[in-house]
Amino acid sequence: MPKILVIDDDRAILLLATKALEPFAEVTTALTGEEGLEQVKSKSFDVVLLDIQLPDRSGMAIYCEIRAHDRRLPVIFMTADAGSQTTIEAMQLGAFDYIAKPLAVEPLQKLVNKAIEQRKMSSVAVAIAADDKLPDDSSELFIGKSQPMLEVFKSIGRVSKQDVPVLIRGESGTGKELVARALYQYSHRDQGPFLAVNCAALPDNLLESELFGHEKGAFTGAETRRIGKFEQCNGGTLFLDEIGDMAASVQAKVLRVLQEQRFERVGGNKELQTDVRIIAATNRPLEKMVEEGEYREDLLYRLNGVTIDLPPLRQRSSDIPLLVQHFLTQAKHDLNKPDLEGIAPETLSLLNAYRWPGNVRQLRAVIRRCVLDCVMPVIVPDVLPKELTAPSDSNEPAAAEETSGEAATEKADDSGVCGSKLPELVERLLRDKSTDVYAQTIEYLERFVILRVLQETGGNQSQAAEILGITRGKLRDRVITYGIQLYRDVSAN
């Protein structure tokens, strides 16, 4: 049974906590902080309930000593004033949670059970570890080993040295600016300036002034001459993000710069010469906008000298563990969480299963939020946002991306030799215009075979590895990669 220590000088609290927790745990009590510390150092506990106000010592001082002894041990503070400054300070120190007095039995049981579960998860090996050392230029790293990303890297290598416009296309959050910066860094213009303008973030008149500059008195508020980005970026690279949101009047002037490398400031009549390479990006259907008269066809052709298509994260799900490790290490340093060890296998399963409508940007935000909210050394599923843990129509994983052991095992059961599921998967990938059909199909087949063999062996990895003809280490890696919840799901079938 789980072992719980309750430290409080109020005997009524000790009695209530004991009665509430005894049905599912072994409860030990202590009336003073020193007595509680002796218990922690002499025995092993799964949870500690600690009063903030103790007769001999401050509860927070006791907490610090408990944490120094075992930082994986969840400590729940008990306080008569849940809104007090002391409680806030206790949470800042890294307490698991707090509960207000007088204690209510059901909330106490739920909170303690939650702490017990997280204690168990924090005691097993992490699926992905947070590195102690931050890589150089980590914010600019371009991460990915999947086939779609290798195609992107090859495209960057082919066109970076060529002085031609490049159009980067992809969903919001896929990392289009990183592609633009990579094109700049590997070009012969890398010693020149690199400037970025978000065309969707500025009103039309301000965007025109931002790009081309303006003369004094050109419009109300133009009290001095302003140098625009095309002038500032002479000899360098200008990145125009969200190019599909540009007004028709600005489109015409940008087209002229692309054709002749000449322009005029707003309100000016002097023609200026520039030498700028333009890299543009959009998540909008420019061809359809051309058909509807919302976008200039000649500008689209000029921008589209070379097109680089960035895949959404759901089409390169094999890169998720690499991205998670990078963002985890980054957040560990940025948010000053030196005790953070990594992510639990169950958490990685959920991250792998999610569809990520916000792509890499959303993944980065989720990892940072988890690191911020995590009070244990290991990030467990309870820390994830609700949309990742609660099933919904928008988060139904594709057949090739499912990582729940139970769901995948059911597929193994009802699909025969993958039955009709494999053709359905291929058809879905073709409809989504995936450029990773082969890799995702092979991944599906591999997952099916591994699940079926594990089911046959009752979850015994040694036997499964022997039947599969691979090492147990390789099998373990596949179990983690595919998020197979081995002990709960496979053995249950």
Short description:
The protein has 493 residues and is α/β, with parallel strands linked by helices. The protein has helices at residues 11-21, 33-42, 59-69, 85-93, 105-122, 147-159, 176-185, 204-212, 229-232, 248-260, 286-291, 297-303, 320-334, 345-353, 359-373, 386-389, 405-414, 421-431, 437-456, 461-468, 472-481, 486-490; strands spanning 3-7, 26-30, 47-51, 75-79, 97-100, 128-129, 166-169, 194-198, 237-241, 262-264, 271-273, 277-282, 306-309, 342-343, 378-379.
Please give the largest β-sheet.
Answer: 5 strands, parallel
Backbone shape: globular
Query: Overall mean pLDDT score?
Result: 83
How far apart are the first and last residues' alpha carbons, in Å?
26 Å
Number of helices: 22
Low-confidence stretches: 392-419, 487-493
Q: Which structural class best describes the helix and strand composition?
A: alpha/beta
Q: How many β-strand runs?
A: 15
What strand line-up does the widest sheet have? 2-1-3-4-5
| Estimated radius of gyration | 29 Å
Report the helical percentage. 40-55%
The share of residues in extended strands comes to 5-15%
Keyphrases for this structure?
493 residues, alpha/beta, 5-stranded parallel β-sheet
Task: Characterize the structure shown.
The protein has 493 residues and is α/β, with parallel strands linked by helices. Helices cover 46% and strands 12% of the residues. The strands form four sheets. The protein has a five-stranded parallel beta sheet, sandwiched between helices. The longest helix has 20 residues, at 437-456. The protein is globular and about 85 Å long.
